[in-house]
What does this fold into?
Amino acid sequence: MRTALAALAALLLLAACSGDDDPPPPGPSPTEALWNPCNSLELGEVAAWFDTGFAKNAGTPQAPVCTFTPDDEGGPVVDANYLVFAEGLDALFDSMTELDPDDVREVRVPGADAARVVVDFDDRQLFVSGSVQNGDLIQTVDVVDPRPYDEARVVRAVRSILAEFSAAAP
It folds into this structure.
């Protein structure tokens, strides 16, 4: 399943590069800030949802990233991103043949058109990937949490992040 989650992340990146025959929108100027889904996530809230301390890396306005690394070794790592994909979340998930349907959960997120959470684990760690769609925007969050992990807590935290993403969607 790790392969499927890696394939999901790769497919999301590919989808961001493919699409309609229309030319891509113009990029920002070197001094113009890019949009960053991390802007909608407060460090204290994320720490409370996962019940652990984090360092937040949001990059710079011109080179945004969104990663939360644990203060303590063995804690969860949280990474978020987004893409514009006019075909929508259903089409994106339908194209992923490596995903086990039993691992995919449709979830309700206020204000979202669609949302999914994928949960898997191996003998060493838990993998949770969440995606939320608002119009053509799909925001994602990926969590890797080594043992011992609390699956219910991580899934709740991912759902909270998706709700924040949806509420802040442009």
